[in-house]
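Students often ask what a holo structure prediction actually looks like on paper. The answer is less mysterious than it sounds. You provide the chain, you provide the ligand, and the output is a string of discrete structure tokens encoding the 3D arrangement of the protein together with S-adenosyl-L-homocysteine.
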Amino acid sequence: MSLALNLDHSSAVRPAMASRPSLIGLSKAGLAAALIEHDVVPEREGRMRASQLWNWLYVNGVTDFDRMTNVAKPVRQKLAEAFNLDRPEIVTEQVSVDGTRKWLFRFRDPQNPNMPPVEVETVYIPESDRGTLCVSSQVGCTLTCSFCHTGTQKLVRNLTAGEILGQVLMARERLGDFPGGSRPDDGGLVPGGETRAITNIVMMGMGEPLYNYDNVKQALLIASAGDGMSISKRRITLSTSGVVPYIEPTGREIDVMLAISLHAVRDDLRDVLVPINKKWPLKELLEACRNYPGLSNARRITFEYVMLDGINDSDAEARELVRLLAGIPAKINLIPFNPWPGSNYGTSPSSRIERFADIVNKAGYASPVRTPRGRDIFAACGQLKSESERLSKKDRDALLVL
Ligand code: SAH
Ligand code: SF4
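The corresponding structure tokens follow.
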């Protein structure tokens, strides 16, 4: 059972206009440059004003230039004329019986305001010691992992850095995480001892983050900036299906925790489950993991392994998994398969998952079994999908001339 709210959209921020670009998602230097370029402030004031804005946007969560009280009124007015601070519109907000929340967010294409909006899902998972936000990087996914619902949706487009951050900002607002904000009334939301509802971010929503590297990098650098949203890089995890050329840059440039969707220990099976394996097979993938910058026992790579009944869940495969990962500081995260309409797989029985976990544990690896969360609202791993579909060229062209 779940509670679905259809929210009053009148409070949602208006969609972006092409002539007023968003300031969300710009680096601090980018903010200063934008202010100067649009003649909002003289060059000498650029850095100072950018720092003020940064604080309003990411520490205080302000969506209205008029609330920026330490910015002179004429400057606020110029800002409002030149830029917007739009966040996504909330289409639906669902709350699972287990407290998991799922939002369907709607974005306009900032470059093409006449294009139909796209929609993505974002999930909040409260636990006793943390609150994790599962963020999407793309609308749909170009990859077609055979057990993943998102993979059945055609990619419409990459999300911009501002749209990736927009999910975090909107979730923080709904969860009362900004100063002066109010928490939802369902209680038990803030993990024990924490002052914030969102303590962790996982790039495990819709899409392959390393196929949208530049925007994901920009968004995560902003989310982790100590003088802004300040989410520790140790509490941000990026999950990839194995886009090998971007693994090293992820560690060097973004410096977040890495998770790999492994799911199989042989190339022939991984070619079917995670077809990107045909391009970058296991040997290359594991080599890239061994060389992940900053890898140590204190900073392990998480290997995700979906438990598919009779497909990849034998004792022999558990032993092979241990052998494959030898020498890599690793955690193994066993994920019971989450079914979706039309999926062709079954979830391994819990006795099988326990036996598999046991073999992996005895070899010295922590191998928590991920408890499915929010299944009743279709918010669990691999269940996310939105209705946004790729338009035919004819339809796109028709819309562009509107
Ligand atoms: N595209 C990225 C991140 C998003 S998916 C990636 O593939 O890593 C987050 C995790 O959920 C991945 O490990 C993915 O393989 C897994 N997953 C996908 N579909 C699933 C399903 N139906 N049941 C359980 N896990 C699933
Ligand atoms: Fe895309 Fe990840 Fe799903 Fe594969 S598992 S289709 S990479 S979202």
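Residues 145, 147-148, 204, 208, 239-241, 261, 304, 306, 335, 337-338, 381-382 surround S-adenosyl-L-homocysteine (ligand 1) (CB under 6 Å).
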